[in-house]
Design brief:
Zincin-like, 2 domains, alpha+beta, 19% strand, five-stranded mixed beta sheet
């Protein structure tokens, strides 16, 4: 099963639009160092084929941040490259998911402007934990508690967005008539 890496202009444009598009600086201040350096993040598509020549999925992340070999940096002008599993990326139908995968890879880049120019390094994820540990012990330290709060906020945003898409008001905004009818039914049932 051969694997090849190719330049993909559509992917490159998607990443460029994400970094430098309208409102990008406001929406994603965590990527300011990349924007400030005005670099073009190299992007390539990774394609794996089976014995019949059909594209198949790779293992691991759909969008990966890879370090460029030192010898290649003078040509890319940037020490990292985004490697995209073209097969799985093309299967994604929601633009939001595509952008989240690109964002996840890009936040792994940390840049600092020094006296001799930009110094780049990769940063580790803020949170790595085993789900079984969280299930068993819950939020057991400050770091896990802060991640838990983020997850709760994300869940609330998801529920709110789903309600809005379905045209349902949030529970606290339910019409008064609905609330009083449901109360009346409860009190009649309790009286019986």
């Amino acid at each position: 099963m051969p694997t090849e890496y190719i330049a993909d202009d559509d992917l490159k444009q998607t990443v460029s639009d994400f970094l430098y598009g309208k409102d990008s600086a406001v929406q994603f201040p965590e990527l300011d160092s990349i924007r400030s350096a005005e670099v073009s993040v190299p992007v390539c598509a990774c394609i794996k084929t089976n014995k019949d020549g059909e594209e198949v999925a790779l293992t691991g992340d759909v969008v990966k941040l890879k370090t460029v070999p030192v010898e290649v940096v003078p040509f890319t002008k940037f020490p990292f490259i985004l490697v995209v599993d073209r097969y799985r990326f093309n299967m994604i139908t929601e633009k939001r998911e595509m952008l989240a995968l690109i964002h996840r890879a890009l936040v792994g880049i940390e840049g600092e402007l020094g006296e001799v120019g930009w110094k780049w390094k990769s940063r580790k994820p803020d949170f790595v934990e085993y789900s079984v540990n969280l299930k068993r012990f819950g939020a057991y330290n400050d770091h896990v508690r802060s991640v838990n709060e983020v997850m709760e906020q994300a869940a609330k945003r998801f529920v709110d967005a789903t309600r809005k898409a379905m045209g349902s008001p949030p529970p606290e905004e339910a019409p008064a008539a609905t609330r009083s009818r449901s109360r009346g039914k409860r009190s009649q049932a309790e009286a019986a």
